[in-house]
Amino acid sequence: MSSHPPPSRFSLLSPTNTSARFSLPSAPSITTATTGTPKPLSRPNIYDRPLNKTRTAEVSASAFAFLFSEVVQYMQKRVSGINDLERRLNTLGYRIGTRVLELMVWRTESLSKAPKREIRFLPALMSIHTNVWKAVFGKPADAIEKSVQNEDEYMIIDNDPVVTRNISVPRDMSQLSCSSFTAGIVEAVLDGLGFPARVTAHNTPVNDFPLRNTILIKLEKSVLEREELFK
Amino acid sequence: MSHHLFLLSPSDTPLYSLTHFSTKPSQTVPSPLSANLPSWSTSAFAGTLTALSGASSVVQASTQGGGVRMGGGQDRHVIQMIANASLDVIEEVVRRDNGMYLKSVDKFNEWTVSAFVTPGNMKFVLLHEGKNEEGIRAFFTEVWELYVKVRTMLNPFHTAHNAIVSSVFDGRVRASARKYL
After folding, report:
1. Is residue A5 part of a domain?
2. For residues A190 and A199, is the Cβ–Cβ distance under 8 A?
3. Has residue A203 been placed in a domain?
4. Which GO terms describe its biological process (chain B) (predicted)?
């Protein structure tokens, strides 16, 4: 290792030493070379960028946590109550969900000869539980449940949601669930696939998982009627 | 031989449209009905009327005509109407067919309508004459990729209901239309 620096230093020095006289004429050629490249300032076109996921494109969880914390702070200053805050987080998630859906399906289906969409509700719900969760949070959700009382209600359960991992809600706002953001994503995906629903988030802590969260999906009547026809 | 592409938002708002004239030869069969229709036009709706009856070879002496032959079925408003009418059929097929590429969902006179529905319920509708399944499939796949880029490259300035005005998008779609159609 110790023998490495001297040779490299020599190799750097020797050309400048020998061609010291020609440094002036050679300098313009360098500058013309840099200006010769077409518009170094123009930004790369988004149409030229590949859409496939790469390792290097992943963002650290702390960057997201900081950003999300700012989002919640920003919104909290502009709302009148918990419901309003949850609704806004939901809207924000919705905008992300529409994009997640298109991008996620493109990544899995675009290479196939006959790309497919989900048209039945249960497979769509399964794909949200695994694929959407993996695309957004890097792990599948923990469970899917169907409500016993109401047949139009389904639940996706996450024992340790990434979104609220660093959030501690004050006691006077204990109703608030910042996973409304996730609920918005789920709502957008369901809407996109043609299953309109009202999606809300609820804190359902248990002993082992104090952060456990339930995403409650209340389907519109038309969806159930259509599912009946498929049977 | 011409192609007409429409991109429609989930709420059926047209976001982008393209008319492409292919250099490849067409194999359209003239409708026998067209021969029975008078070639003169009496009202503003005559063009629509002849178009709807299937006359594709009627020369319209209209103001925008000049020396250009305006076939009845090639009128802009007729094209738009056919595309709009096909939406009902597409809506129906989408519910039971789980493919994104819906080939030849509808036919109207010389026009065949093919469609592509993205997972986010965005509809690409293409009116074409003649058969070109593989070409259209490849074309739709490329348009899909371009659309995903315009929509999902986290571009905050675009939502599902904005018209697509990007000139690069337009150029790319035209290029792939030249390539496949």
Report:
1. no
2. yes
3. yes
4. endoplasmic reticulum to Golgi vesicle-mediated transport
Whether A158 is in a domain gets the answer yes
Cβ <8 Å between A49 and B117: no
Instruction: Determine, yes or no, domain membership for A46.
Output: no
Cβ-contact B37, B50 below 8 angstroms: yes
State the DSSP code for A80: S
Q: Euclidean distance between the first and final Cα of chain A, in Å?
A: 72
Q: Does residue B104 sit at the A interface (CB-CB below 8 Å)? A: no
Longest Cα–Cα distance in chain A:
90
For A:103-122, CB contacts with B below 8 A are 103, 105-106, 109-110, 114-119
DSSP for residue B28: P
Q: Render A170-208 in DSSP notation, one character per residue.
A: -GGGTT--TTHHHHHHHHHHHHHTT--EEEEEEE---SS
Q: How far is A13 from chain B (nearest CA, A)?
A: 46
Domains, chain B, with CATH or none = 2-27+75-180 (3.30.450.70)
Nearest residue in B to A117, CA atom:
B98
Closest CA–CA distance from residue B163 to any residue of chain A (Å): 16
| CATH assignment of the domain containing A112 | 3.30.1380.20
Whose CA is closest to B75, among B59, B95, B96? B59
A199, A185 Cβ separation under 8 angstroms: no
- pLDDT (tens digit, 0 to 9) for every residue of chain A, 231 residues total? 444 444 444 444 444 444 444 444 444 444 444 444 455 556 667 777 777 776 677 788 899 999 999 999 999 999 998 999 999 999 999 988 988 898 889 888 888 888 888 889 999 999 999 999 998 888 999 999 999 999 899 999 999 998 888 888 888 888 889 999 999 999 999 999 989 999 999 999 899 998 899 999 999 999 999 888 887
DSSP A91-108: HHHHHHHHHHHHHHHHHH
For A192, the domain range is 60-230
